[in-house]
Design goal:
globular; 6-stranded mixed β-sheet; 3 helices; 209 residues; alpha/beta
Amino acid sequence: MSCGNEKIVQLPEITHSEVSEILDVSAAYLFYDETKKDSIELNRKSIIGTTNWLVNVDKRLTLKQAIPKIIYLQDKKRNAEVHKNAAAKNYYTCNNSSIKNLGFIEFTDVYYKEKQSEDFTLEPNTLVVLFNSDSDIELKLPDNETIKTSKATLLEDLKTITSKNVALETIQLFFNKNLTFQNYITFKSLLNQLNNKQVLIANDEFIFY
């Protein structure tokens, strides 16, 4: 995808998306830029506060690079005193290879936490998912049992655990700061396919250092 000044964003790839069309939109872009020290540039000039926001993040950026800019955008919208639309949502734009078109992943209610507060405690009956790397994922159950999994088996493992542990209520996500945005979107797309109405994925997502 390119924006008006011909800069290119390499969108993350997905194979599943619950949303494929959004109306009344404006866009922000997070570019991967090898010429800059932090390799990232944010363009939000065309974004309108009362619309649905499409946030186009280059898949090569790491979470350490991208998340602070995303938090900045979220705060601008959440803290707006005028020109506010409570019904407007935020989405990440992706390439959905299964339909050869764009797909969108909503993140309106996600609150990114770059530092775990000292008084943070897990709610009872919480499953912790630690995304250490693309191939190293840990599932920590409330009884302190840890199950190792990977991208290929994550969804099936979660389905098995949540079906067997009927007391589970919440899934708490932790992401390594060095994961690429492509890694992140792949995991989010998988989690959106869990479809277990008894277990909620927490809105707070921790980026660990």
